[in-house]
């Protein structure tokens, strides 16, 4: 049963990477102080600051640290996971770590950008968010993603100019397409337009 | 279908009588402050019961 | 258009609607209803014999009502498929006594009054949404007199009047006297760029459409005077400025300022527009024969249903929200779904076509890969602790758990391919024997512990669902909306994941205030998982009250990914509530919860998390 970090497991070694995001984060949050704070957290063995963690040099730092410090968990304190979770999962995977052992702390969208006038409280909040992610990271388990075959057919809903183009492109790239149109004919709004800009030619 | 019931907003403390459909789970919004922290009360609010 | 009808790999289903979508990326099951045309569309040769005999005359939608069609008709001459359709709503009646003339007239015997709707169950790997938009209806802007004055028309109606295939064969005339007008005024931004009526955004196409229209008029009728009333002319695309310049060169007057209202001369039916030219400051009244309202583009009213089937959210403008506005503009947040055309935002033909090709290129990455990996966030049932109660089976929005049967010793089973990881079953399981991969209970406790480790009185613990509330917080960030710093977000995939135990744990650890937030019911990414959240919170309020804890300290909010404003407002309100919670009150709560909270049924879970919460 996976659930918590049991004694049988090897020692947990966490690397924390605190991103400045140029001035986006560092302009409000004292990232140096956050990094210092992260060093005091349990199981954290290395902490690094980066100007842009998502850029290649930043990612290379993570990969290097994973190898050098034998890390088995990574916490990236930067932006929202909705933008870069995939980036950093791929990054740690390239360094041989299971992608599910990477955790993010959102200190940009949920911190520096929304507390621009409150630098100290924002810094304390960033510390909390890092601490929360580190605590979660300690309990992360490697996961294997289930794989499924992809049905070789495409559905296009709507037979206006966009739907028609999409259906033709799918078909011309060799795929079976279903084009579903609500009206009795395809053509949509475009079919009712006489001449179209900028070429001033006919639409149909 | 719908019945009336007592509601209390846990954000602004506004109490009101509103419609609801038993069994159907619906999004509730306080008519005064717009919060979704609206609780249906089993009995009328205290002051109304008293008065 | 013709190519679509002919292409061997395209199956065209017109007169059809998607009724249901199930499955997941790479493996969607779609059911489609094809409404009957009462005509065999393959056999029909569009010979028009039926139309000739049909006695019913109704306004023709395609010609914007400027001419009429029959109850059996072809939508427009180049229609694909090239087949007639019988409009049953207007048909007199198909039994021979009422009418039935068309069936007699058709040599090919392709009219069948008993033809029924057909159902298709499609299996597809990817879905491209290209449902488009609709033009704004300017009737509500009464000052322009649309519908009151016949010579005030919309830009869509203009298209039909100027078209060689239109009701007047391209001899542009005004509706009242069917004479070619000597002067035409165009009014821009009708329904667009207005916070009060219509829509607040710029509809993108209407400036250039008007520029094009003035050139068409100039071309056909060199003596006709066109005047364009505008706020700004947005001619930003390739070749656009050129057209705009040409339009000015041929004598079209551009007047910066929108008329306040339009009046009609009751005798001549000419129209008077009074407008201030904001460049010169002069107020002038203009008399014209005809007015064209350049109407904006708005989201389709009927798109709500399909949006919900694909679990898509709208942005604040009502169009669909992309996976990322800059970096993934044609991907939907729902994997395997892509956008093409105006369903995403108003755009012209060139941009629609570009986006369609982009969507196909993105979708082909998936199709060509041949297989797809699903995020490892599915649920796992620990059978040894299951008591066969079947609650998980009932609550799962995706029917992803097969029924339990105590007599047969059958435990419920998670069908991994169908589980989308909402976590509702884990939160609702009566023995807490379901865990979520990558989103374990213990991991949540660990996060809450970390947040409350220092100065707990200062913190608000907020559980926010990945798709809406968490993203709403991101939206507040992107828009730089400032709010108090006390809140700490804990991300869950769905608000349905938030176990009552998580909430109690936060209170036990000294949280003054807890927020649970998720998607609006209509936006829920897990069908109706959010209704379980609502019910659970209501129960928890009752429970808190019984225990002597103020229910107000548990707050609930539905915040969409586009509602950054609401997110910031809620955060401000919560901070006010937090300030009213006293240390004494929190101490009291901690005492209450550390005594009696670990109930017997929760033994298993307690054991699993004991290591972390100690
Ligand atoms: S008469 Fe028959 S073949 Fe001719 S248009 Fe009508 S339905 Fe089609
Ligand atoms: S394109 Fe032009 S007319 Fe249309 S809304 Fe934008 S500014 Fe107004
Ligand atoms: S996690 Fe959600 S989708 Fe998966 S089995 Fe449980 S209730 Fe169903
Ligand atoms: S809810 Fe829990 S105890 Fe009940 S059947 Fe499902 S897994 Fe078993
Ligand atoms: Zn309220």
Quickly describe the structure.
Chain A has helices spanning 31-39, 56-68, 81-94, 108-112, 119-138, 161-172, and strands spanning 14-19, 44-50, 73-78, 102-106, 147-149, 153-157, 176-180, 195-196, 201-202. By secondary structure, chain A is an alpha/beta fold.
Structure, described:
Chain A is an alpha/beta fold. Chain A folds into two domains: 14-137, Rossmann fold; 153-202, no CATH class. Chain A has helices spanning 31-39, 56-68, 81-94, 108-112, 119-138, 161-172, and strands at residues 14-19, 44-50, 73-78, 102-106, 147-149, 153-157, 176-180, 195-196, 201-202. Chain A has a four-stranded parallel β-sheet, sandwiched between helices. In chain A, helix 3 (81-94) links the parallel strand 3 (73-78) and strand 4 (102-106). The longest helix of chain A has 20 residues, at 119-138. Chain A is elongated, with a radius of gyration of 24 Å. Chain B is mainly β. Chain B has a single domain, classed as Rubrerythrin, domain 2. The relative contact order of chain B is 0.32. Chain C has 614 residues and is α/β, with parallel strands linked by helices. Chain C folds into four domains: 16-28 and 120-132 and 300-373, 3-Layer(bba) Sandwich (FAD/NAD(P)-binding domain); 36-116, Alpha-Beta Plaits, CATH 3.30.70; 134-298, FAD/NAD(P)-binding domain (3-Layer(bba) Sandwich), CATH 3.50.50; 439-610, 3-Layer(aba) Sandwich (Rossmann fold). Helices cover 29% and strands 21% of the residues of chain C. In chain C, strands 11-18-12-13-14 form a five-stranded parallel β-sheet. In chain C, strands 27-26-28-29 form a four-stranded parallel β-sheet, sandwiched between helices. Chain C is globular, with a radius of gyration of 31 Å. The relative contact order of chain C is 0.08. The interface between A and C is large, with 97 and 139 residues. One iron/sulfur cluster (SF4) binds at residues 381, 386-392, 404, 412, 429-431, 433-434 of chain C.
